[in-house]
Design goal:
By secondary structure, the chain is an alpha/beta fold. It folds into 2 domains: about 35-40 and about 80-180, no CATH class; about 40-75, no CATH class. Helix content is about 15%, strand content about 35%. The chain contains 2 helices and 15 strands. The protein has helices at about 80-100, 135-145, and strands at about 1-10, 15-25, 35, 40-45, 50, 60, 70-75, 105, 115, 125, 125-130, 155-160, 160-165, 170, 175-180. The strands form 6 sheets. It has a 4-stranded mixed β-sheet, covered by helices on one side. Strands 8-12-13 form a 3-stranded antiparallel β-sheet. A two-stranded antiparallel ribbon has the order 1-2. The relative contact order is 0.22.
């Protein structure tokens, strides 16, 4: 993004002058953020969380202030649609970012599994099924890139002799496989 500033000065109110300068501010990253949608959520042991209803603005705190309080983890068996939505939104934001700065966005060789022979339920073990029966070839390829393991797309700009990636560039390192059927 290029920003321009205009400065107007007046010397003792007699002579007015102005100057304009421009500067480039790069809002980008060079290394993608790694994400993992493994459906594991933190849970505190029974009796370790306290909440004071008399003061609702005070958040819950650990009642055991020692540093040895353990945090357990729960794993959900429900489909992780929030992960799917997060991946799709990251692509959309990155596409806009790239277009606004005359950059590029392209698909990589990484693709989500596309298997029309998987019947049945929406959630298959550690996989999440996306029904693509009504999608055209362009929409199907988009979902393959968005849900790909690793990085299925790349949005970048070239500035100051370097390649910069969108701040929303992510690599999917999830144990959950997104399957398009």
């Amino acid at each position: 993004m290029v920003f321009e500033w205009e400065v107007r000065t007046s010397i003792a109110g007699l002579v007015t002058s102005s100057a304009t300068t421009s500067s480039e501010c790069i809002i980008a990253i060079q290394t993608p953020v790694l994400v993992d949608f493994d459906n594991t959520y933190p849970r505190y042991p029974e009796g370790k969380i306290t909440y004071s209803p008399s003061n609702p603005s005070h958040p819950p705190t650990l009642s055991d202030h020692s540093h040895t309080a353990s945090i357990l983890a729960d794993t959900s068996n429900e489909p992780n649609y929030l992960g799917l939505l997060t991946l799709a939104c990251a692509y959309v934001l990155s596409a806009y970012w790239s277009a606004a700065q005359q950059g590029t966005i392209r698909y990589t060789d990484h693709k989500a599994t596309c298997n029309s022979s998987i019947p049945g339920s929406l959630h298959l073990g550690s996989s999440l099924r996306l029904d693509a029966s009504s999608l055209g070839p362009n929409e199907l390829r988009w979902w393959q890139a968005v849900l790909a393991p690793g990085r299925g797309w790349d949005a970048a700009i070239h500035r100051q002799g370097q390649m910069w990636r969108s701040p929303w560039t992510i690599e999917n390192h999830s144990k959950i496989e997104f399957v398009i059927v």
